[in-house]
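Supplementary Methods S3. Input chains for the assembly prediction are listed below.
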Amino acid sequence: MADKTKTDSPNEDIRIMLAELWQRHLPALHERLNLLDRTAEEAASGILPEPSREEAQAIAHKLAGNLGMFGHNKAGDIASQMEQILKAPTAETLPELAPLAQSLRLQLAPSL
Amino acid sequence: MRRILIIDDEDDIREVAALSLEAMAGWHILTANSGASGIEIAEAEQPDAILMDVMMPDVDGPTTFRKMQQNPAIAHIPVLLLTAKVQGVDQRRFAGLGVAAILFKPFDPLTLAEQISEVLGWSSLPAQPDISRQSR
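Predicted structure tokens for the full assembly:
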């Protein structure tokens, strides 16, 4: 368990621990972003195989729920938009994944 | 000291929620990565409350909650569901379950303890004396 008296402020303790956790989970985050990039590329034609769709939807859902905890609210919103497209994709909405995946990376770039 | 069981398949969520509740409220945290293991831990440890993810592989949060309600050993433990922001039909589905509250992801680690305390009617102060606070 972390030492709660590391600083005099629980808020500051949490911020420090969140920063450490973020660093620890970066490899997993990179994998998830890479998967979303690959899916977006695959979906550009307006068709996406079901296994790819299902996997990407789960990843987007996790990112939508997690990124905001670390202060990346805008990135979390983008992940949520991707999740909604992947939940019920159409030939018109699938190509939207690519620019969203790009925006997601841009939002997170300073922290990656 | 309050004891909270966090059930979520995501490592990130369990870790952040645990450190948040420990740091901000001094609660003792138990964790489980599935509904099945969560039920086992709840039976053994009798936590004061359970914070549980909705979307989990195999058995989801609502199904796990129903199993808990059918288990006399743990049916009394208040359960808070943790879910991505939802609308319409999903909100109605969760409201009808009988959980203590629905909290939305992403949560703010700095206010999670306060949110939980508020919905459960607990004092927001740590249950144990904080020596560092007393010495200020």
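Residues 52 and 59 of chain A are 11 Å apart (CA to CA). Chain A has one domain: 10-111.
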